[in-house]
Structures are given as C-alpha cells and as structure tokens.
Amino acid sequence: MRTQVGIVGAGPAGLLLSHLLHLRGVESVVIDVQERESIEQTIKAGILEQGTVDLLRQTGVGDRMMRDGFVHHGINLAFEGGLHRINLTELSGGRSVMVYAQHEVLIDLIAKRLGDGGDIRFGVTDTAVDGIDTDQPTIRFTHEGRQETLECDFVIGADGSRTMCRYLIPERRDFFRQYPFAWFGILAEAPPSSDELIYAHSERGFVLVSTRSPSVQRLYFQCDPETKVDDWSDDRIWAEFSARLGPSGATVTEGPIFKKDVLQFRSFVCEPMQYGRLFLAGDAAHTVPPTGAKGLNLAVGDVHVLDRALGAFYQSKDTGLLDSYTRTALRRVWRAQWFSFWMTSMLHRFSDASDFDLRRQIAELELVTSSPTAAKTLADNYTGLPLG
Ligand code: PHB
C-alpha cells in the first residue's frame, strides 16, 4: 500500500488533518488501535475555541455542531461567597466558545472522511513505524488479520497521550509537571444547573459546573488522585457539590448519575515535535490539565500548521514550513500551558496551601473579575488565539 501521508491515530488531530489534506488534494491513510464505536463513544472535554469552530465550519464539518452545540458568551468564577461573570465576547472583541463534546466532533469527522472516500483502518494491532530518517518511511500494522505495509512520504504521530510515535524521536526533551490532585467527573441526567460554566474556588477544593445538552450535565470536583469512583455514592457526590458551591449561591440540579470517572492532571510538552519525516500532533506531543479546556483545541492548532506545511511541500517542494513546524506549533502550545497552569493554580486547593496562599488566590480572582485588563487576558486566552 502507498499513500502520501500516513497518520497514526484517529483522534481529533489525525482525523482533522486527513480531512484538511483531502481538501488540498493530498492523500492520507489513518490507522487506529481502537474500533470506530469506541472512538465515537469515549467521553472527553467539550469546549471548542472560536478558531476551532470557524475551521470546522469553513471546511464543511460544522453542520451538526452549529445545530446541536451551544455558543457560550461568558463564564462564571465563584469565590468568597460570590459569583462573578466574565463576559468573554465583550472582552475578547466578539469571540465566544462552543460547548460541543469531543466525541461528537469525531463522529462528524469520521462520517465526512468516509463519505469523501477516505481510508481509515480501525482496530489495527502490531503497529510499527520505520525509516523516518529516510524520505520513504513505512507504517506496518495488522488489520482484519492481514499484515499491511503502508509506504508514505510522511508519518504523522497523532496517537494520543499513550503514543508510541513520540518515542521514535531521539534526543527528545520532555517537560513535565505533575499535580497533587485530580478531577472526579460525573455525567448526570438533569437539565443544566447554570446557563454558563461555573469555575468555583472553595476551601474544600475546586468545582466545575459544565454541561453537555439540555438534559445532560457534566460536573467535576477536585479530588485526590488515588480516589476510587466506587467510594463515592450519588448522595455523597451531590452533598460535596453543595458544600463547595453553597457559599457562592450557585446550586446544582440533581439527577441520576450515569457515569463517574477520575481524570488525572498533568502538564507535558515534548520538544522537538518532529524528527526526519515524522511529525507529532496533539496529545502525542503535549498534555494540558483540563482547567483551561485547551486539549482538543491545541490538537487543532498543530494540525492547522501541519496542513499548510504539507500543502507547501506538495505544491512547490518547499520544506520551509515543515522545518519550522516545532517552532511554530510550540508558541501556541506553551501559551496554552501557561494559561492552563494559571487557571489551575488560581482555582485549586493545593494540599500544602497555607492561609497566605488562599488569601493570595482570592486576591488574584478579585483582580481577574474587577480589572478589565486582567479579565481581557482571561477572555482572550479562553476563547483562544486566532489560528495561524
Ligand atoms: C467539560 O465540559 O468537560 C469541560 C469544560 C470546561 C473545562 C474542562 C472540561 O475547562
């Protein structure tokens, strides 16, 4: 088998890149270890930046998102017994975010790729990438019991945080930060508790009130990384939300909880993001804590750069944009690292936090909710830097 661009991973990065390349007439094949059903059902984050929304719309994969997603023009910060709205749209000069779950984006991208005759191999095993330091790399894998060898010009490692592609880059530098907490997440059958998301600081720890649809809520509370979901009954969970949100006056609408999970918190960046004919995109190259809602949007940022770089290569054999891929992509990645870290450290309770630290967090939250300059910094970064 032969293609121009071999893509390992059918997540947001891999599928969107395959779609964008197709629009320029560049061929690709996407492989993934997971089956289609599992990719389409795995619940992840749900906030799309303005640039992500625009790109999906402009490239013909935004119809369902525009119909079923929810545009949010603000978020609320809760602290010290009050609820403070940040008007994202006014502060950012007209930008907003879309609440539309990541797996819905994947459903749309898979349908579009297959509808356009794209080649996606689900449920592959024994993947091996060779020859990335030559101009004819290969991806070997087993699909439906047959061993295949895919010859390509480029290999894209879009294989998520459990990546194998990352380890093919020699002389890599990994930048890493662990956090002493995690998020306990639930999905509940209940109408949204709030029209807009609430990020709540509390002495018992952080809470995020998010949503998925008019009948499903997504809520999180900060917990110990060792927390076992089975130790938390529904009643205990609702009591914890009330205890943390109570002082701000916000309340949660209770309903049957149909999913509980614990999300680990990490910040990670791998440099460089390329070696020879291998390019990493999305979580294979970096991870952010979910507080800034940047994970999927960073994958989109990488792919936007890669698509133009590969386009230039196929149009005029110009490798300039490919050569500078790491430098270009990392600017956005490190900005998002900073933003996610900032939101995380401003809102969470650290186990070793003193009363001084708590007062300092409140002062920071007061700054962000009262100074238009500080609020604009939050709004600009939350709604996202323009792509390109
Ligand atoms: C979510 O709805 O899953 C969500 C929203 C905002 C975040 C993180 C997660 O910052």
UniProtKB/TrEMBL annotation:
It comes from the Bacteria. Signal peptide: none annotated. Coiled coil: none annotated. SUPFAM superfamilies: FAD-linked reductases, C-terminal domain, FAD/NAD(P)-binding domain. Keywords: FAD, Flavoprotein. InterPro entries: FAD-bd, FAD/NAD-bd_sf, RIFMO-like. Residues 2-336 form the FAD-binding domain. Pfam families: FAD_binding_3. This is 4-hydroxybenzoate 3-monooxygenase. PANTHER family: P-HYDROXYBENZOATE HYDROXYLASE, TRK SYSTEM POTASSIUM UPTAKE PROTEIN.
